[in-house]
């Protein structure tokens, strides 16, 4: 019906003018003769040689899909009024939107600013959240299916892709159903299409909105498919604070993409930022984008029944007193990045101390840096940092009771996990990168999904949390606090899995061996305990020295060495901090290093993925200052000193590729390694 103006469809809908046409259908502006209103009428084109049984099946499929779409009642989704059959094809009658599509807007006027793109994006994400909750997946979201009518943004064509997909299957055309530039890798590869595919499409649509072109393209359909499936993403240059969210949405792992509700929250907070709690007056704010902080608020904990404090209340009250602030330098916050870590910090080969270098060359030849890349969005106290296994995200436990997620490439805040009501101390990332565990001074442990940015388990703990660690197989979460025991939990749901209790040992920090067969714990009273994780008994109890407090422990990546770092107590006060290396099999001490005397405590230690470099985060006796130092384990030379921290350096972690170091102090910092 190519020249059908004036024709009556279904005895009710008068076709007024053709307003759009594609390979699989035509859209008309029409008039409902019964209700006297404008409507949009979509004619689905079926192959002329289609056998009657197949044609009848497609018409029935179209009717079923249209009925499902009609149940979606949301301001951001085009309303479906009716479906009728005429001339052997289905016609879908919808709300008429007097406006233009986002695709047409981009073609005519070029890319949008990030704020306008975010305004459109939040409406689309909210509409997707409604549809996904109802069990509907769009399958072909793209700029051409996003309609702009004044201040209103509306998604059209829900269910159409499923009808067209059925058509291609029946006709054996093997065509790509949808627009491949905006389709997810799993959809293009023929896997199950889930709500996560719509989230990829939202990311691609936002990318196109700010850049003027989709993230992947090519001269042919199959070239586009190959690019989407395998080529690296070119970071958008004009996305501003949207860059982090876009990168998360375009993650090839569907389980890691934010869901629609989380994306809507991020975009909403980006457009309507909340102010941060006041910071100490000694802190110099790093260049930051306040929008980036608010952009990522992922919403309240959806698991526990107790509502978290509001942002306003947190700002007024500030964080409550933390056991962490009165413990020796915050010891026990051990950052584990991409596997096990080993203790090592500043000493030369003879155990001679190295003075702190701040603004000059280091005596041992190490380079000094006073210009960290402080991440924007939060400059309050950060207690712990950890990278996700793919190195794309930095997770941080913050003193304001939140867990923040930064995109390492764009430096944008891409998530804020809200639910704790007091300072967050330790954080840990599961080996598969899908979950984060956080411990708080509110005496709870929360397990969070990185994909949805929501908690899926909350566990009451008997004390302030000191340290958390996932077992290498990801099945168990181990936790220590100030009561001296090790608690074990099932990582899948947070249910209790037992305790480890050594008589007269106040266990405080912990680290799994790479094979998961041994758990090393450091105690508040100067002991290093090695546990058999299968039998849950003590293999060995080692003593790094006499009158030692707060033993920090770690394993080497090959599992052959377990290291401990500690500070002795003497009649004159704190003694010289040292690091001991122990053979994990014979339990014999192999070496000991004395640490620079200006560093009175080690708060965290980490080993590079190749096992050659070690880093330590320390507190200094100069008052309120901290340093992170990097050491070549083979030569025992200090290779870098990062001394620009505005408070104690509380945590340190290597990126999985070993090129970047993250530290926690006043804010979170990223440092490029020499």
UniProtKB/TrEMBL annotation:
The keyword Nucleotide-binding applies. WD repeats lie at residues 375-416, 417-458, 509-541. InterPro entries: Kinase-like_dom_sf (IPR011009), Prot_kinase_dom (IPR000719), Protein_kinase_ATP_BS (IPR017441), WD40/YVTN_repeat-like_dom_sf (IPR015943), WD40_PAC1 (IPR020472), WD40_repeat_CS (IPR019775), WD40_repeat_dom_sf (IPR036322), WD40_rpt (IPR001680). The keyword Acetylation does not apply. Keywords: ATP-binding, Kinase, Nucleotide-binding, Repeat, Serine/threonine-protein kinase, Transferase, WD repeat. It comes from the Bacteria. ATP binds at residue 42. Its EC number is 2.7.11.1. GO terms for molecular function: ATP binding; protein serine/threonine kinase activity. Residues 270-323, 351-381 are annotated as: Disordered. Residues 13-271 form the Protein kinase domain. It is an enzyme of class 2 (transferase). Residues 283-307, 358-374 have a biased composition (Low complexity). This is non-specific serine/threonine protein kinase. It comes from Streptacidiphilus fuscans.
